[in-house]
Amino acid sequence: MYADIIIDIVHEAVDRMFLYRVPDELVKEAAVGQTVLVPFGKGNRVRQGYIVALKEEPDYEPEKIKDLIRICPNELEAQERLISLGLWMKEQYGSTMIQALKTVLPIRDKTSEEEEKTVRLLLSKEAAKEKIKEYEKKHNVAKARILNRLIHEPELSYPILRKEERISLSTLITMEKEGVLTVERERVFRNPVKNPEDGRGIHKLNQEQQLIYEEFVRDYERGIRKTYLLYGVTGSGKTEVYLSLIRKVVEAGRQVIVLIPEISLTYQTVNRFYTYFGDRVSFVNSRLSKGEKYDQFLRAQKGEIDIMIGPRSALFTPFPNLGLIIIDEEHEQAYKSETTPKYHARETAQKLASLSNASLVLGSATPSMESFTKARMGQYRLWVLQKRANQRALPTVSVVDLRKELQEGNRSMFSRLLKEAMEDRLKRKEQVMLFLNRRGFAGFISCRACGFVLKCPHCDVSLTYHRGGRMVCHYCGYERPIPKLCPECKSKYIAAFGVGTQKVEAALYKEFPEAKIMRMDMDTTRKKESYDKMLSSFSKGEADILVGTQMIVKGHDFSNVTLMGILAADLSLHAGDFRASEKTFQLLTQAAGRAGRGKRPGNVVIQTYQPDHYAILAASRQNYEEFYEQEMTFRRLLHYPPACEILVIFCTSRQEETGILALNMIADYLKKVYGPDTLRLIGPGEGAFPKINDMYRRVLYIKEENQDQILAVRKKVETYIQTEEIFSQVHLYFDRNPMGIY
Ligand code: ADP
Ligand code: ZN
Ligand code: ZN
Questions:
Q1: Protein residue with least CA distance to atom 21, ligand 1
Q2: Chain centroid to CA 662: how far?
Q3: Going by CA atoms, what residue is nearest to atom 23 of ligand 1?
Q4: How many CB atoms lie within 10 A of CB 2?
Q5: 21 vs 54: CA distance, rounded Å
Q6: Which of 213, 309, 390 best tests ligand 1's pocket when mutated (most atoms within 8 Å of CB)?
Q7: Whose CA is nearest to atom 11 of ligand 1?
Q8: CA–centroid distance, residue 548 to ligand 3 (Å)
Q9: Which of 491, 550, 653, 708 could disulfide-link to 658, CB 3.0 to 4.6 Å?
Q10: Cα of 240 to ligand 1 centre, how many Å?
């Protein structure tokens, strides 16, 4: 028997399959996806690899074929289906085979597992003190030291104990056997409270929902597999529909993957699935160690669970008989991978569904331009939920022109309308959310006398003001105190410009001294669980006003929030990204959807400097289709996805000239191969952040209507860059239909 092996080296030159002979004694163990050791190259160095195919006949000169050395035991067998998916991803998005395989195959990682351990004291303080005396008598100083520390901090992470108390894991394990403490691998949501009394997950479907469910069942039972786009306003009961579809598929003996953006994977959401499906559900998120994730995948393979919930990587759960994939909030940017292969979970799910004979359901209140276009063209079946499920009205929205406020003498960051509405809510003991699309205290630092802006010397982006007079680079972390005098003109008019959540918080304390205020942004939620804690504390009414960035507008259900203030709606319009309007519209619509989820009706106040922008107008009318039409006109006119495909060739280099030369050569090469005017080339030019971490960044865009053509272009470039020495001095990345800016 022979095996095609992919060697575990990220290097273009070995980016192909190598044929090996499987010795007779290994034939029984050999299976696609197994990890193997093989002799590789001239020196026959032992390398790790993966079996991607097995065959009886060699398609290579038999005398040149080497033998496999060993097959490594691996509990988790890689499925051929996932390997095909990996190879498809390589083709679509551009990567080496090994990068693609490593994306789809779960790989155990011993080191990260250790990092996640938590040590917990099991004894009372008194008992622990007794135990310390006992240890000291026996000269067990290390054990005594641990207990002394745990008496003050009954819960400690293992890496801290190891570093600060120099304790080995084996000492902890003997103490665990003595019943003194436990060593736990942390699992968030491990014991979700199962309380079906909260009334969720047990509703009878309303008529709109029921029709959708019935259509799905009809298709499913006839073996018809489709992609469905469930477009339903916030609170229309999409999750309720998912639950019924999942139950149907699970009852038919198949399994389900549910993708939810990491940021919405809160206790609330996960618990809703637990109440419905109990122990048959598992979830993964980025906070799990690789080992824990591997364990969950193992459970899936063994048939211990039916449903896996998680962010985009949950797609690679090795279920034996996948029947349905659901992608909630399908428009979310997080579904695009930022590392090579830069795959989009939506497209990848569609491929996986077809490889598995499964159905795919995409859901959103603001579908992506891509998906809505496909639904319009009939490639996806469109399902619409028009009403909020619980008879709650959609909130009323007012738009305030901030330019007018200023003209009329209001210099505060709260318009008069918003301020009145807030006063009113505080009086009625209802809650308010304020959304600001920014991070940190304020924007950049500039000189009002000469206009000089302080930038990071390594990244060439503006430094950001942080509390305590510091300025910080958000890309590389460079940090300095703000100078007293302008470095350029020596004036003293150097100060922070713009608004951030801290500044809003400070202004709120001034305007509403009685109110309890809570702030949520990257800085206040950095600690592992503080994000969930803050949300639950706010939902219990422990604060009157919640100020925050994007993270407060994603799918949380606060029934006492009746006012949502959007402080500067247009900030995200200037992101320098062709999706800026789409993102703004989505954020505003989602933010608006937060108000009035309970019994009392909600109001939304959108403050903006551009009240006439179509994204803001459409969001204020909560009219998705109006937005879609206008945006699509723009995309068609300027050849942006989904009207066109875009390939990004992105280059980073230590020397600026090398990067310039490398991309110019690619551009010239493409002009030569395709003729001067066939391809739409943009650039090469500087990236939006020309230099980060001392690396120069350049970018070349190629726009092309035909998807096959864009794949062909990428492959040509991949081959071309093997031929010239200069490309080994730069890093090149491919990104098809990018989500962010380069
Ligand atoms: P979405 O996922 O579209 O935001 P949800 O499924 O979370 O909507 O539903 C919004 C609210 O309406 C939830 O509180 C949910 O329990 C409730 N709900 C959904 N469907 C029904 C129904 N058929 N009957 C009663 N309440 C429902
Ligand atoms: Zn100056
Ligand atoms: Zn920097």
A1: 389
A2: 31
A3: 205
A4: 20
A5: 10
A6: 390
A7: 235
A8: 25
A9: 653
A10: 6
| Alpha-carbon distances of 505 from 6, 186, 530, rounded to whole Å | 54, 33, 18
Residue in the block written with tokens 């200069």: 726
Pairing of strands 17-21, 66-67: parallel
On the question of pLDDT at 127 being above 50, the answer is yes
DSSP string of 463-490? -EEETTTEEE-TTT--EEEPPSS-TTT-
Query: Which is it for strands 545-548 and 431-435: parallel, antiparallel or unpaired?
Result: parallel
- Residue 105 CA to residue 317 CA, distance in Å, equals 9
Q: What percent of the chain lies above the pLDDT cut of 70?
A: 91
For residue 655, the CA-to-ligand 3 centroid distance in Å is 17
User: Distance between terminal CA atoms of the chain?
Assistant: 47
Between 177 and 115, the higher pLDDT residue: 177
Tell me the mean pLDDT in the region 97-110. Answer: 76
For residue 738, cis peptide bond before it (omega within 30 degrees of 0)? no
Contact 624, 634 (CB under 8 A): no
Q: How far is CA 64 from CA 18, 59, 61, 314, 514, in A?
A: 11, 11, 6, 40, 82
Bridge-based pairing of strands 17-21 and 2-7 is antiparallel
CA distance 317 to 295: 11
Mean of the per-residue pLDDT values for the chain?
Answer: 85
Position in ligand 1 atom list of the atom nearest CA 242? 6
**Rounded to two decimals, what is the model's pTM?**
0.79
Contacts of 148 (CB under 8 A, 6+ apart): 132
Q: Which residues line ligand 1 (CB under 6 A)?
A: 200, 203-206, 209, 232, 234-240, 389-390
CA 444 to ligand 3 center in whole angstroms? 13
**Does residue 438 carry a pLDDT above 70?**
no
Q: What is the distance in A from the centroid of ligand 2 to the CA of 168?
A: 56
Distance of CA 40 to the CA centre of its chain: 37
- In this structure, which residue's CA is closest to atom 26 in ligand 1? 390
